[in-house]
Amino acid sequence: MAPSRKYIVYKQSFQSPLITSRGRWEERTSWVLREQKEDGSISFGEIAPIPDRNDIKTGEFQAELDNWTSYQIDSSDFLWIRPALTSLASSIWMNPDSPRQYLKSSARLWGMKPDHLEGVVKRKIGILPPADEIPMIQKWLKNLPEGVRVRLDPNESFSRDDLLKWTESLMHFTSVEFIEQPTGFKDDEWLLNYAPQSPIPIALDESLLRLDFYAQIAGFGKNIFFVIKPILFPDWISLFSVLKDCMDRVIFSTAFESPFGYEALLRLASHSPLVPGLERSCFLGNKHEFKQHHQANLSSPSVSVDELDRLWRELD
User: Fold this and answer.
1) What percentage of the chain's residues is helix, strand, coil (to nearest 5)?
2) Taking the model in full, what pTM does it have?
3) Distance between CA atoms of 208 and 220, rounded to whole angstroms?
4) Interatomic CA distance for residues 37 and 126, integer angstroms
């Protein structure tokens, strides 16, 4: 069977806008790659830039995609599409007889289903000035049902002073599991120094892509969590190699991928014992969603490669 490489642009609308510190998010755009090898095996990869990420050059990775489909450049020479290429090469697509594992109930994204205040809830913050927002969050935390755990995500919107105010204000709320990626790239090193003494645990997300993560991880404090969005990492083999001894602090999380990238995420999420961040109800009801991706108990794997390929052919 002749090998082939193709990609599509996949756009999916949120059922209701997602409001973050970066603004109003109504639609997600992904570039989804499909590769068929000579033996007939099929795999998928995806790149989906985060809105307002100034370091992403859409035109440059579009050019790489065109070179990739025409086999003009060796895969090792690509830069922008490497996260998709590492997925294409992954063994997650290769064994149709892999045993199915059921994942822990995902953290729910607050505001999508307000009635789901149980288990772990993730809430976006950094939307209002701290003087207005902190009292609001404190009141919300006080009224949460017993046993609910909370992850707060400011999406890099905090200054250093903002973070100090927030951690001091929330230090007595044992329901707060961590604050995720509170500060931006200019404060990455400062955040690493502050995290071990923070009264609220800190989770690193975007900064993992900027720091010398692979070399520094051994020196990271024990109260630092790692939020891993596989769709953003260019080398899954190296990633899993450095994380193998600290999986008890790893949260696999969605970046609101297409069904193809989401299935890849599910197939990786079973490696961590922590509650993952797999909330996808924002796409429930969209035309090309798989019902298996909206079950109360998600599984790994969930949708077969054949099912994904049928969807691909429908979209191509």
Assistant:
1) 35, 25, 40
2) 0.91
3) 11
4) 46
pLDDT tens, N- to C-terminus, the chain (316 residues): 778 999 999 999 998 887 777 778 889 999 999 999 999 999 999 998 776 555 556 677 788 999 999 987 777 788 889 999 999 999 999 877 678 899 999 999 887 665 567 899 999 999 999 999 999 999 999 999 999 999 999 999 999 999 999 999 999 999 999 999 999 999 999 999 999 999 999 999 999 988 888 888 877 878 899 999 999 999 999 999 999 989 999 999 999 999 999 999 999 999 999 999 999 999 999 999 999 999 989 999 999 999 999 999 999 8
Give the separation between CA 50 and CA 28, rounded to whole angstroms. Answer: 9
In the block, tokens 């199915």 appear at 100
- For residue 93, the tally of other CB atoms under 10 A from its CB is 22
Q: How far apart are CA 176 and CA 195, in angstroms?
A: 15
Alpha helices, DSSP H, located in 101-235: 130-142, 160-170, 188-194, 213-216
Cβ contact 257:249 at 8 Å: no
Q: Which residue has the tokens 């890099």?
A: 156
At a CB cut-off of 8 Å and minimum separation 6, what does 95 contact?
none
Please tell me the distance from the alpha carbon of residue 26 to that of residue 18, in angstroms, as a whole number. 7
- C-alpha–C-alpha distance, residues 120 and 151, integer Å: 7
